[in-house]
């Protein structure tokens, strides 16, 4: 069992990247479902306003620290935790699917992105078993869920952005068995080459969020004032406990 720490009432699991991967592998091998949330400050703020999303966060089997804001909030509680980003974690899960022959499903992003991604992955991993892929712009959610159920994936990467991806994964938990389902945000855009990841030095300095905001200024209103509010509440939260 991993250690859980709570930030403003929402869980974060304290574990290494490899332990997070092992959790995924054990769930699949034991036929259990595992909903993974890669939590960031925007999600915490969203959950503070949306009870249903808050409930989903609290019922997720694995919540890993994405975003440097979460690292800082943990540090305020005296806990050191490495960042486990959605892009890195989902890439490692794809490699695991290729190596261990797990059934992989991909849901999300624009049609051109998902089809490029599918082609790229199949060129890179000859034996990768992609049992389902669909873009993230659809009207009939029930139909998509039924198709995913019929495909019986063991790993589902859901790239619809929060909270959509977490809501879909939560619904699928009732329908699937032995599946690791992860909300991976904009990861498909990165894998397919439509969005550039921050250079490693920015990543190492914990400034990937700043790089993305500079490249996509429309993200500015998502970060501000959310990030300062989150940090302020985290300071209050750490003093309380
Ligand atoms: N998206 C989607 N369906 C939607 C809304 C968004 O598939 O209805 C996709 C969008 O194309 C993008 C991803 O969800 O690939 C969200 O990316 P974003 O950068 O917002 O997520 P973040 O990485 O910031 O969580």
What can you see in these coordinates?
This protein is an alpha/beta fold. The protein has one domain (3-238). Helices cover 52% and strands 17% of the residues. It has 13 helices and 8 strands. The chain has helices spanning 17-29, 41-49, 51-58, 68-76, 86-100, 111-124, 141-151, 164-173, 187-191, 200-204, 208-215, 220-223, 226-240, and strands at 3-7, 10-14, 34-39, 62-65, 103-108, 129-134, 155-159, 180-183. The strands form 2 sheets. The protein has a 6-stranded parallel β-sheet, with helices on both faces. A two-stranded antiparallel sheet has the order 1-2. A hairpin with a 2-residue loop joins β1 and β2 (10-14). α1 crosses α5 (86-100), α2 (41-49) crosses α3 (51-58) and α4 (68-76) runs parallel beside α13. It starts with a strand and ends with a helix. The site of uridine-5'-diphosphate (UDP) has 14 residues, from α9.
Q: How far apart lie the N and C ends? A: 23 Å
Extended strand count:
8
**DSSP helix count?**
13
Uncertain segments: none
What is the number of domains? 1
Shape: globular
Helix content: 40-55%
Q: What does the radius of gyration come to?
A: 17 Å
Strand order of the largest sheet: 4-3-8-7-5-6
List cofactors, ions and other ligands.
uridine-5'-diphosphate
Order of H and E elements: EEHEHHEHHEHEHEHEHHHHH
Judged by helices, strands and strand pairing, the structural class is: alpha/beta
Let me know the average pLDDT: 96
Indicate the topology:
Blueprint lengths: L2 E5 L2 E5 L2 H13 L4 E6 L1 H9 L1 H8 L3 E4 L2 H9 L9 H15 L2 E6 L2 H14 L4 E6 L6 H11 L3 E5 L4 H10 L6 E4 L3 H5 L8 H5 L3 H8 L4 H4 L2 H15 L1
Helix pairs in contact: 1-5, 2-3, 2-13, 4-13
